[in-house]
Write a structure and sequence with these properties.
47% of the residues lie in helices and 0% in strands. It has 151 residues and is mainly α. The structure holds heme C (HEC).
Amino acid sequence: MNLFNRFIYLSAVVLISFLFLFAYPTLVLAGDCIQKRKTPQAPGNIYKQANPLGVTAENISAGEKLYTKGAKPLACIQCHGAMGKGKGKLAMGMTPKPRDFSCQAMMKDIPDGQLFWVIKNGSKGTGMMGYKTLKDEQVWQIVAYIRQFAK
Ligand code: HEC
């Protein structure tokens, strides 16, 4: 092997090791948080609806208040947790687990309208209850807030 070939060979080894050691685990781990969702899909046009409210600091902060305290009978934080990871106080031993809003790989495939509809109607047979007492505007504020967890 002349010097040039040896150089090419060594560079290839270094590059492949790098990809294997860093890039591969990063790709695998990024999707590791994805939960198996059997949650019913929102009907018709609601599913794909984008948040009609501006994602402003005001709306996000109103959403945060409802998430951490305001939502009755039980604030979202109790199950979905302060970091939105689905690890709130009441989440232990719950099957299926509360949604992990911080999981970008999963959340990017769940449209605003789906989040809105499940907050209003719940997911039957799971810990996720429907919040009929919240006004539409309040629910969209919460949607704006929970989107921040995956940013
Ligand atoms: C008693 C525990 C509990 C509380 C309180 C709770 N959730 Fe959930 N939530 C769950 C569980 C469990 C799931 C998973 C349901 C499923 O897998 O179908 C879930 C799922 C969700 C989803 C997922 C929708 C989807 O299509 O994947 C959203 C959005 C959500 N919750 C929002 C909220 C918001 C907002 C609040 C407060 C207004 C709240 N949750 C309060 C337990 C809870």
